[in-house]
């Protein structure tokens, strides 16, 4: 009888211990419908809020607020960090905010650096730059197909470690910059092939899920232009052109490209470069106000463009460092997602050949032959083992 009572007491204690209170440690945390950054947010929690943790699934915890709202939080929400992802700020309206041209240019990073000038703007995406292209059902099917008949995603995550450069934080300024970049670079319009767009975003989701910021919401817009470019905004919205997708030959090259772009975000390159250009940004803002009052003629515009070009040439070394850092971190993300990391080298080599005939004064700094050569030389040329794949046939089926 005593044995039965003891077992009963132990079961009660075990049951009671399954649920426990924890405190949110980050400035803003998203309580989602299910475990995954692509699920809708049911409530945004703030630092200091307490929740009851009900159970754990991988890197996600099911929790209930004192008000009775239930959902899933990432483990990152419970890690003490001085600065962190602020999802609430990223969701705020960003329309109508005036951005200095040089500030926008400072944050635009990627394989192709576009010169941002006055002109067309995709107003809809400027107002709301983040679009949810990934669906739980679609991503679930994509991931099952990706790891069917081979090692699990967990295996690849365990084989390659990733160390965070520090907690991610995005300011109101960076959100506004992101909105402007998105509106500017999507001005040609978006590709309306829903299957293609979903596929690109599913690859991006797998890359993000393989990073230290696995709970980061991601959105990739496919721009309807034959120009070859890919750019990342500080808030994690990525722009990839149709021309770039046609240049890519396999899914691992796409994954490496997206991993490179996402690395610009996680390595804080947009914020770092904006801080480095702070004095120039302030001066640009002051002159912009004068231009509004006095007007600007064509000669003055040409002088402004020349000054901006001279500044870009002066900082090329710093930007090459950003690119090489993003290459290295992107390879880590690609490997953790199970992709052959040599896709970075094959893609850069192809892009270098394409750019061979571009005049030197029109070529973005990190596409210069010497810079590209150094980047390619630093990359692995083949997969570490047969476990890592390229998915060339699936890419051709979805993109061609």
Any idea what the radius of gyration is?
23 Å
Order of neighbouring strands in the sheet with most strands: 1-4-5-6
Largest sheet: 4 strands, antiparallel
Beta-strand share of residues: 5-15%
Assembly annotation: single chain
Poorly predicted parts: 9-17, 108-118, 306-317, 360-365
Number of strands: 10
* CA-CA gap between termini: 72 Å
Helix content: 40-55%
The helix/strand series, from N terminus to C terminus, equals: HEEEEEEHHEHHHHHEEEHHHHHHHHH
What's the pLDDT, averaged over the residues? 78
Structural class assignment: alpha+beta
Apparent shape: globular
User: If helices are DSSP runs of H or I spanning 4 or more residues, what is the number of helices?
Assistant: 17
Overview of the molecule:
The protein is of the alpha+beta class and 400 residues long. 49% of the residues lie in helices and 12% in strands. The chain has 17 helices and 10 strands. The chain has helices at 2-18, 87-90, 101-107, 123-127, 136-147, 153-159, 172-185, 194-209, 242-247, 251-266, 269-276, 278-294, 298-314, 316-336, 343-354, 369-377, 392-399; strands at 20-23, 28-32, 41-46, 50-57, 60-64, 70-74, 109-110, 219-223, 230-232, 237-241. It has a 4-stranded antiparallel beta sheet. It has a 4-stranded mixed beta sheet with strand order 7-9-10-8, sandwiched between helices. Strands 2-3 form a two-stranded antiparallel sheet. Helix 3 (101-107) packs across helix 7, helix 10 (251-266) crosses helix 14 and helix 15 (343-354) runs antiparallel to helix 16. The longest helix has 21 residues, at 316-336. Residues 9-17, 108-118, 306-317 and 360-365 have low confidence and may be disordered.
């Amino acid at each position: 009888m005593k044995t039965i009572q003891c077992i009963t007491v132990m079961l009660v204690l075990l049951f009671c211990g399954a649920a426990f209170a924890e405190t949110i440690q980050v400035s803003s945390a998203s309580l989602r419908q299910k475990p995954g950054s692509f699920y809708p947010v049911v409530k945004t929690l703030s630092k200091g809020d307490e929740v009851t943790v009900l159970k754990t699934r991988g890197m996600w915890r099911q929790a209930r607020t004192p008000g009775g709202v239930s959902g899933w939080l990432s483990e990152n929400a419970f890690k003490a960090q001085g600065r962190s992802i602020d999802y609430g700020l990223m969701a705020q309206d960003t329309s109508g905010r005036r951005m200095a041209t040089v500030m926008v240019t400072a944050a635009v990073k990627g394989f192709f650096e576009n010169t941002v000038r006055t002109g067309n703007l995709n107003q809809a995406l400027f107002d709301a730059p983040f679009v949810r292209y990934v669906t739980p059902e679609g991503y679930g099917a994509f991931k099952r197909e990706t790891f069917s008949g081979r090692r699990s995603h967990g295996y690849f995550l365990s084989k390659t470690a990733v160390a965070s450069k520090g907690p991610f934080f995005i300011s109101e300024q960076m959100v506004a910059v992101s909105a402007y970049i998105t509106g500017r670079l999507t001005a040609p319009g978006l590709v309306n092939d829903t299957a293609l767009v979903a596929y690109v975003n599913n690859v991006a989701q797998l890359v993000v899920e393989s990073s230290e910021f696995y709970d980061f919401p991601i959105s990739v817009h496919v721009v309807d232009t034959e120009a070859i470019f890919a750019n990342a905004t500080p808030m994690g919205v990525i722009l990839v052109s149709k021309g770039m997708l046609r240049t890519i030959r396999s899914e691992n090259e796409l994954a490496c490209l997206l991993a490179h772009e996402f690395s610009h975000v996680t390595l804080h390159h947009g914020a770092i470069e904006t801080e480095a250009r702070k004095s120039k940004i302030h001066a640009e803002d002051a002159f912009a106000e004068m231009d509004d009052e006095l007007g600007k003629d064509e000669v003055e515009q040409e002088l402004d463009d020349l000054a901006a070009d001279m500044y870009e040439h002066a900082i090329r070394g710093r930007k090459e460092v950003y690119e090489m850092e993003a290459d290295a971190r992107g390879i880590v993300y690609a490997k953790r997602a199970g992709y052959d990391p040599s896709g970075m080298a094959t893609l850069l080599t192809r892009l270098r050949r394409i750019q061979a005939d571009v005049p030197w004064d029109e070529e973005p700094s990190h596409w210069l032959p010497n810079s590209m050569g150094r980047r390619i030389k630093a990359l692995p040329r083949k997969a570490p083992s047969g476990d890592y794949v390229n998915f060339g046939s699936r890419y051709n089926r979805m993109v061609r």
